[in-house]
Design goal:
about 200 residues, alpha+beta, single chain
Amino acid sequence: MFSGIIAAVGRITQLTPREVGFRLQVDAGGLDLDDVALGDSIAHNGVCLTVVAKEGQVFMVDVSQETLSCTVGLDTPGPVNLEKALRLSDRLGGHLVSGHVDGVGEVLRFDPIGDNRLLEIRAPQAIAKYIARKGSVTVNGTSLTTNEVNNTDFTINLIPHTLENTTLQHLQPGSRVNLEVDLIARYCERLLSAEREA
């Protein structure tokens, strides 16, 4: 589990093709890897991946073709939002995040409002029902609060701190982003549908 509070912006520096996917070499940037062991999980733009090798501030993860088919930002070198998996004793500063991307959204607007940015995203129809006004959503691994929701489109206000400490500062209209909806919303829907079926 993760919290959606980005710990550092790292960089995918190399992709090595594998039979089904890639092995990514990642420069961890400011992410402290001292307590990271082989087999640990690190979220990359909201995608939970397993550390398979590590040396200094560089580590490697494998990403499957299945993951590549339903996410964005892991198939080319470039910056990535990084977060280590939570320990039971950690603070939950954002919200409960599984690191399993539900769909890819499209940025409609990224407008300056003073020092902030108004971010508007169109979510896939299949997951839009889980996004609620003043609710939680994860965009490229970043825990954010929605402002307004209109059918499949929703807006978020990004403060300067978020812009300075994540890759979200590079967004523009037409950018594609990884979305993970609130875990609780999914479980509530499943519970209610199971009761209806019974």
